[in-house]
Design goal:
Number of strands of chain A: 2
Largest interface: A-B, 51 and 51 residues
Strand content of chain A: under 5%
Oligomer: homodimer
Order of helices and strands of chain A: HHHEEHHHHHHHHHHHHH
Organism (chains A, B): Bugula neritina (Brown bryozoan)
Subcellular location (chains A, B): Nucleus
Low-confidence stretches of chain A: 4-8, 16-88, 93-110, 185-216, 274-321, 422-436
GO molecular function (chains A, B): DNA-binding transcription factor activity; sequence-specific DNA binding; zinc ion binding
Mean pLDDT of chain A: 59
CATH architecture of one domain in chain A: Orthogonal Bundle
Bound molecules: zinc ion
Structural class of chain A: mainly alpha
CATH topology of one domain in chain A: Retinoid X Receptor
Pfam family, one (chains A, B): Hormone_recep
Strand order of the largest sheet of chain A: 1-2
Distance between the termini of chain A: 21 Å
Largest sheet of chain A: 2 strands, antiparallel
CATH class of one domain in chain A: Mainly Alpha
Number of helices of chain A: 16
Radius of gyration of chain A: 26 Å
Family (chains A, B): Belongs to the nuclear hormone receptor family.
Chain lengths: 436, 436
DNA sequence: CATGGTCATTGTGACCTC
DNA sequence: CGAGGTCACAATGACCAT
């Protein structure tokens, strides 16, 4: 719904936006207006979601970068013959030759790999496909008990793969928990029958709550982002005049601005929620929260869930990366402006066409673009002037335009978050390639 | 010079800004105008600089957080008596009791500490005060030769202190280089006389060039930031009407906006440099670069040095953190707008007063602030209108206001950088406290 | 006094036992 | 088949000889 705008000209478009303005819907509410040709969007309505994207697969996907391992394929027997040590089991050589022997080589990149570090797995341990190393690591962490706490030297976002897994125990254990490794109590003596069932491969709230930080607002926004891109592109296509731009320019604009657009959409959506006043839901009980979370785990654009999420799990975060608090501030700003949905829609357009000069020069049809841009600008000015008196209108226009800096700020922060969530950039490229 | 604006009313101020507009100065140029009562600023003129802030001290300062070590002060002899092992030298207990015995306890937090990890130092090793651990670590890295390369699992920004130094070898070695540790060749056999002189404690380019990334644009901006704050505050005090605001509001505004103000100043300064076209200095030879760097190491606001710096040292950076490229883009944008210094000055004022609602509510005198803000806004509108025709003026006004999103974007990125450079936030608080 | 070497201690992971 | 144990190996750092 959110990105929806059917084929019509500019005036029809603004008219529609006006008429649709008072139309609110919640993430877990029902869609009231069934007559309009809505294309459902994840930013509020949550249609059928590919459930394959659950926690384990998600992280597996994020970590599936082509690890460069051009091992020389020699000197394994070499070292053991030259130095006849009594034993040499461990492989800490960092250029090992041992793991190119999985029979289903590298076709889908996924099976037979350790879900934690992408090394070759030796079986299912503690509920998850892992390598010997991660198995032992998790075992030791269990044996050590609750006393030991690892600390990350960076931001709890360390890469965990075959060569780096020894660097940060905190992040390694975090990933272990994320992919669902569990002790299942101490092993029962000798029951040959129904043993360890495979872990459900879904976020487990109890496990999840043990984790510290990091994976909350940012993670969900990143995931949301993936799902929302197609809707955003569809929306842009239906902007009057946008399709007249050359295709390359459309792609350029969409690609450059998609993060900002995601942000402004979530913000405008949140402004419409009646119960989105900051700090209200913070008093909800954990039980209520779990109900809500269980009701619809998959994905939701509204900040309401995010807020609950943060309230329960999120402790203090690193300075400057707390997306949640920052978003609340911006929402409150817009609420104080008493902004209408119509104004939000036009602000979106302004934001989409607010490019710096270098980007503008790279467009193929600058003329057409500038026309479009000034048209949007004009539109906002008219909107402001019609409501209030002359000088009041100018003042409101200024307020609205200046508020875009806040959106931009959030977009930049989100970009930083995403860049740390592995290959968001290439992911984006691929997505856009498949869509257009 | 840059933050300079003497005591005068608003009209005098704009007049002065107008008259001073075509006045350019380079970082290594001479100051031409000696009659005006300029207060020199680091953002271009570089007066006497407290040279105490060199590389080593800087990192030492950044890392001087109050490490929470409430060691139980027992069980040292305990363990050696209960288990009569033949040897137990190393202290890996993580709650050691050994380092509260430095006789000059914790008065200035600085002396007798390892410059790398803040553990208690055992003397000067490889030219720098270090602990035994870091000494051995550096020794091994020398013995291993160039073959071995450490890789950081995060972003080459890991914290290095007593408990975390074992986490990331890459970052530990990086810090070793940063504080100036050197091999000085292999030790001469037996010369009892003039031996290792203490390292100069200044950035050494040769050592520095060995490092990968990270410490370039961002580091210098952070350092510049420290030095520039007082000038910024002085500048703000002289804005007509600003001193009429309550003192708390002044502090609030200054504190919230100082990063953005730093960014816009560097940008405007860079736009004035004749040779600041992007990608021009990239062709300079290394020798030329070293000359420039040697000429004035301490601090310089102009991007010209930054550009050289990056051109020589900076390889590709993490996505989204490359301040340098982003700044170049913005500079080029403003150059294409053909922006005047006067316009920049007013933009600065607009940026200073562009706060979100929550901040505005926290001000004590909202009325006064709003008046000031609209005054600034008016001023820019007049400036634009006077130059061009009516509609042209509005268009330019829009362009300028929208361009503030670009500045905000840079500010946000810089904030992220600074937050990773340890305790920039508390540093800022202290600074502001001492000034006001 | 700083350097280079020594070696107990700790984390690791390939392999083994059950 | 997987949990738990084993132990060679690598990194670390307190201490020592020079
Ligand atoms: Zn693994
Ligand atoms: Zn980590
Ligand atoms: Zn140290
Ligand atoms: Zn690191």
């Amino acid at each position: 719904m959110f990105w929806n705008s059917s084929n019509m000209n500019w005036h029809q478009y603004t008219a529609m936006v006006n008429s649709v303005a008072p139309f609110h819907h919640l993430s877990n509410g029902v869609l009231l207006n069934t007559s309009s040709p809505v294309k459902s969007s994840l930013l509020g309505d949550l249609p059928r979601l590919p459930t394959a994207l659950c926690a384990s697969n998600y992280f597996q996907y994020l970590q599936s970068k082509p690890v460069k391992e051009f091992q020389p394929t020699i000197l394994r027997q070499q070292s053991s013959t030259t130095t006849p040590l009594p034993y040499d089991r461990r492989d800490l050589s960092l250029s090992s030759t041992a793991n190119s022997t999985t029979y289903s080589q590298n076709l889908p990149v996924s099976r037979q790999q350790c879900q934690v570090c992408r090394d070759s797995a030796s079986g299912v341990h503690y509920g998850v496909q892992t390598c010997e190393g991660c198995k032992s690591f998790f075992k030791r962490s269990l044996q050590a008990g609750k006393g030991q706490t690892f600390v990350c030297a960076a931001d709890n976002k360390c890469q965990v793969d075959k060569r780096l897994r020894r660097n940060c125990a905190a992040c390694r254990l975090r990933v272990c928990h994320m992919v669902g490794m569990k002790s299942n109590g101490v092993r029962k003596t000798k029951v040959g029958k129904t043993r360890y069932i495979r872990a459900k491969n879904v976020f487990d709230l109890e496990e999840y709550r043990k984790l510290d930080s990091v994976y909350n607002t940012e993670t969900v926004l990143c995931r949301l982002f993936q799902n929302e891109i197609p809707n955003m592109i569809e929306w842009a296509k239906n902007i009057p005049g946008y399709k007249d731009l050359p295709l390359e320019d459309q792609v350029t604009l969409t690609r450059t601005k998609c993060l900002d657009m995601l942000v402004i959409s979530v913000i405008s959506q949140s402004c419409n929620l009646e119960n989105a006043q900051p700090a209200v839901s913070f008093s909800l009980s954990n039980q209520k929260y779990e109900e809500l979370l269980a009701h619809n785990e998959s994905s939701s654009g509204s900040l309401i869930k995010e807020k609950l999420h943060s309230a329960v799990i999120n402790p203090l975060k690193a300075y400057g990366t707390d997306m949640f608090c920052n978003m609340l501030k911006v929402i409150s700003h817009y609420k104080s402006l008493n902004i209408s949905q119509t104004e939000f829609e036009v602000l979106k357009l302004l934001l989409l066409t607010n490019v710096d000069n270098s980007l503008k020069q790279s467009l193929t049809n600058t003329e057409l673009f500038s026309n479009l841009k000034s048209q949007f600008r004009e539109s906002l000015l008219n909107l402001c002037s019609s409501k209030d008196s002359r000088s009041q209108g100018q003042s409101r226009y200024d307020d609205l335009v200046m508020s875009l800096t806040l959106i931009k700020d959030l977009g930049t922060r989100l970009e930083a978050c995403m860049s740390q969530q592995a290959e968001a950039s290439s992911m984006l490229t691929n997505l856009l390639k498949t869509i257009l």
